[in-house]
Amino acid sequence: MSLRLYRLLVRFYPQGFREKYGPELVEAFAARRRSRTMGFVRFWIFHLKDFVLSLVREHADARHKPRAKKRIMLEEWIMSVLLQDLKYALRVIRNNPGFAAIVIVTLGLGIGFNTAIFSVANGVLLRPLPYEEADRLMWGFSTFSGAANASVSPPDFLDYREQNTVF
Fold first, then answer.
1. Distance from C-alpha of 23 to C-alpha of 3, rounded to nearest angstrom
2. Residue-wise DSSP of 33-58
3. I need a labelling partner for 79 at 20 to 30 A (CA). Which of 34, 85, 116, 140 fits?
4. Are 32 and 75 in contact (CB under 8 A)?
């Protein structure tokens, strides 16, 4: 799975660079992944940081803009700040595992509920009904003096269908 993700990410490089170095990059990634000399999180942080920085450099070189060096320095600074923030977050999680567990459970429940609500709304409100000409369906009800709204009984429905001149 992760090798497929890396191959997909390689497609973001400029075409000339991708054709020349793409297979070599994928092979180097696979070899480092097989060696497993570093932990999973450190491995992905290292490779994603390296990937983003090299991607920015290649796009800047492909455009031949004079401000590319400043842009690369800015990107490196942003990545270093993000890496510092990530290290700090991991340190806080390690020092407060109970708080981290509560946060993770809360996020998981929130994401799960949000997904469930959207699935229901998508199925009920957004998708059309699984009938032909679903926009022509009607809801029938009867009104009596003693009751507000009552559903139509089967004999009444048959009478309505036989005497119908409107629908």
1. 12
2. HHH--S-HHHHHHHHHHHHHHHHHHH
3. 34
4. no
Structure tokens at 98: 């109970």
Is the pTM here over 0.90, yes or no? no
Q: pLDDT tens digits, residue range 10-69?
A: 787 777 777 887 888 788 777 777 666 656 666 667 667 777 777 777 766 666 555 545
Q: How far apart are CA 76 and CA 73, in angstroms?
A: 5
Reduced to 3 states, what is the DSSP secondary structure of residue 151? Answer: strand
Neighbour count for residue 159 (Cβ, 10 Å) = 12
- Amino acid in position 36: R
The first and second tokens of residue 78, run together, are 């942003």
Going by C-alpha positions, the residue among 52, 80, 83, 39 that lies closest to residue 91 is 83
Q: Which tokens in the block code for residue 157?
A: 């429905």
Q: Are 151 and 141 in contact (CB under 8 A)?
A: yes
The angle that helices 2-10 and 40-63 make with each other, rounded to 10 degrees, is: 10
CA 164 to chain centre: 50
Q: Which of 146, 143, 137 is CA-nearest to residue 156? A: 143
